[in-house]
Amino acid sequence: METATKTNIFTDVIFLTDQGRMPYEIKRLLKHGKLSFLLLPLDEFSKVQDRLNLVGTVIIDTQDLGSLQQHKLPRIIETLEREGVGTIVLGDHHELPVKSFVLARAPVRSFALTNKTESISIDDLWVRISLNLAYRKKGSEITVKPATPPKETPETGTAPLSEQLCVTETLVDNLAEQLRLAGLVQRDFLPDQLPNSEKVRCSKVFLPAEWVSGDIYDVVRVDENHIGFCLADVVGHGIPAALLTIFLKQTLVLKQTLENNYKIFSPAEVIKNLNVRMTAQRLSGYQFATCCYALLNTETFELTFSRAGHPHPILIRSGSEPRQLKIDGPLVGIFQEAEYVQKTVQLASGDKLLLYSDGAEPIIGNFDEKKGFVFSKEFCELKDLSITELADRFNNIAQNRTVDPSEFDDVTLIGFEIL
Questions:
Q1: For a Cys-Cys bond, which of 56, 105, 375, 394 suits 12, CB 3.0-4.6 Å?
Q2: Cα(254)–Cα(347) distance, integer angstroms
Q3: 3-state SS track over 375-393
Q4: How is residue 25 annotated by DSSP?
Q5: pLDDT, tens digit (0-9, with 9 covering 90-100), for 315-346
Q6: How far apart are CA 396 and CA 310, in angstroms?
Q7: What whole-number distance in Å separates Cα of residue 31 and Cα of residue 262?
């Protein structure tokens, strides 16, 4: 039932694609398995977003991850993950004697991914669809062994209610304390001081949605004439995302020492090397991340930048409206052979540059299908402030705004101003 539209009917499979059609082999597979399915363009995901409780699993079919609108894919996957919908992400289709597909990485709850990007047959795809549906429908095909409580913890079924409440309260307190300490450890990986000088003033905003954050940033003096600005955002939240941010921070290599000399890596090289190391690690779970890296020459004020699925950097020039510095680039952690490009712009006195995570985007503006990205009035009122004042005001706005709990996200912004 390719056109299932009634909101009260359970749909086994939603097939999201930017290819305009569903591969014949998959359509035949779903029909043969007597599964209800809906073919939907990737751009129209919002049509089913409010009825994901009636969706079994989602297959996302895209052959060009780099050309997708910024944040589209990670935001969709985050939404599906939040609703507990298993996700299967398909990449290139390979013409083999038995039709096969390349699976891209996806977050926890996606049974499509194991350790690395891999090629699977149509039969394997059916197994993974079945697993997702069994999990979603809580069928008897999957048996989950309950966790065994620690010996010192009384089983809640036999202990008096007062003891159960006491144990539960203790466990909650311990968990909260562990999360608090994890957040402190994560902050230890952030720069203590920003490399301010008579020429450049830096500032930042870092507001985790929880104790720990899926965002990580760094502002570092690479050498006496260069400062590097990096911001990465893991697709997902909580402890798994926070662990990956620390891996990203430690894996980011900005220069290489060569005997008595050194080589500064270009932004495109930095992100490409990060992607290669991330995919080679064969990480489990939260494996998507967006990233943007900008390198500023403090002598010439040339700025070179590259991005991987991250929000476009924003240039604020005195007397002009803010504008995005647009450049393409696929997310890191998907395909080891992904390529990244870079651009260079000449900055001048008074110019400001901002990098930010998608959690900050609702304050900055929104994407309009006809006009493109439109900056909010609230943000435009900040553009003429110094970078320090801008960050302070942005921080106040972010903390005082009203946000739906389902949309609460990490908010990170880093930037600098040419003095």
A1: 56
A2: 21
A3: ECHHHHCCCCCCHHHHHHH
A4: H
A5: 999 888 999 999 999 888 888 888 999 999 99
A6: 24
A7: 60
The C-alpha atoms of residue 370 and residue 228 are separated, in whole angstroms, by 34
Q: Hey, what are 393's tokens?
A: 């005001």
As a whole number of angstroms, the distance between CA 130 and CA 57 comes to 9
Could you tell me if 278 and 270 are in contact, meaning their C-beta atoms sit under 8 angstroms apart?
no
Token pair in block for residue 273? 């090397």
With a CB cutoff of 8 Å and minimum separation 6, the contacts of 147 are none
User: All domains of the chain, ordered by start, with CATH?
Assistant: 11-137 (3.40.50.2300), 181-418 (3.60.40.10)
139: tokens are 């069928």
Amino acid identity at 313: P
Collapsing DSSP to helix, strand or coil, 76 comes out as helix
Task: Return the sign of the alpha-carbon dihedral for residues 63, 95, 288, 264.
Answer: negative
The whole-angstrom separation of Cα 7 and Cα 270 is 46
Low-confidence ranges of the chain (pLDDT < 50): 1-6, 67-70, 94-100, 103-118, 139-156, 286
SS3 sequence, 296-348?
Answer: EECCCCEEEEEEEECCCCEEECCCCCCEECCCCCCCECCCCCCCCCCEEEECC
